[in-house]
Write a structure and sequence with these properties.
Layout: E1 2-6, E2 12-17, E3 26-35, E4 43-49, E5 52-59, E6 62-66, E7 74-77, E8 84-93, H1 99-102, E9 103-107, E10 110-111, E11 115-117, E12 130-134, E13 144-153, H2 159-166, E14 176-180, E15 199-201, E16 205-207, H3 226-229, E17 237-239, E18 244-246
Antiparallel strand pairs: 1-13, 1-16, 2-12, 2-15, 3-8, 3-13, 4-5, 4-12, 5-6, 6-7, 7-11, 8-9, 9-10, 13-14, 17-18
Length: 247
């Protein structure tokens, strides 16, 4: 399941003031997104003002992970010509030695080379307010496209964890502070247990779920994912987002 944002009616899923990642040095979010055309705008994250943000947004053919904490700071990827379903993980590590260590975007589990603007902060803003899925507040821009499986952590996902999410894994449940499947009901439930249920504005429709990523084993370079299934050699992993059972 997923939610479709039609690009015309200021649709959103407003998850309220998720204060768990205010003024923290480690935070991540991930989601599946479906763009019909290059440049379709959609966003996930927090936008209080131009200088207090933590969100992913597409503008034109550029993808931005914006980490403002009192000034303009972000990482961006130009020539972002992604259409169809793809998976995004955005990772912030305020303790990183360089901008590239602090701010990462993973596309389908692969770390992207970014350009950086401003001096990236060591913590998120202490003024973050509503976690919003869909509508982009600046200029009242309507989100367009499908979004599914939105997750928020108060930790910095590792490269292996970012790839695990893409393959249907569910890493770092301890630090998971928000999980919105997108399509489970109204309000959109927060299955993390934090209680940040999402209020649906202008009724974004339920549509088909993301396509299944490569099956486990297709990427022979990625052995660590096996640890998400079992440490002893046998076990069961339930994947909610693709409604599949791996044994």
């Amino acid at each position: 399941m997923a939610r479709n944002f039609d690009g015309t009616s200021s649709q959103e899923c407003n998850c309220g003031d998720t204060t768990a990642i205010n003024n923290v040095a480690n935070a991540s979010m991930s989601f599946w997104i479906n763009q019909a055309a290059t440049g379709d705008r959609n966003q996930v994250g927090y936008y209080l003002s131009g200088t207090h943000r933590f969100h992913y947004v597409i503008s034109g053919n550029i993808a931005y992970f914006i980490l403002n904490n009192g000034s303009t700071q972000y990482g961006s990827k130009s020539s972002w010509n992604q259409t169809g379903w793809h998976h995004i993980s955005c990772v912030f590590d305020g303790g990183g030695a360089t901008d590239a260590d602090k701010c990462k975007i993973y596309l389908n589990g692969v770390d992207q080379s970014l350009s950086y603007t401003g001096t990236l902060p060591s913590t998120t803003s202490s003024s973050l307010n509503e976690f919003n899925i869909g509508w982009y507040p600046p200029g009242n821009v309507n989100g367009k496209g499908d979004l599914a499986e939105v997750k928020l952590w108060k930790s910095s996902l590792t490269a292996d964890q970012a790839k695990s999410v893409y393959y249907g894994g569910f890493p770092d449940r301890v630090n998971l502070v928000g999980y919105w499947p997108m399509g489970y009901g109204s309000p959109e439930p927060d299955l993390s247990g934090s209680g940040y249920n999402g209020t649906l504005v202008n009724s974004p429709a339920i549509v088909d779920h993301p396509s299944t990523p490569p099956p486990f084993g297709a990427d022979i370079s990625y052995a660590p994912f096996a640890n998400a299934v079992v440490a002893s050699g046998f076990g069961i992993l339930l994947s909610t987002q693709r409604n599949r059972l791996v044994i």
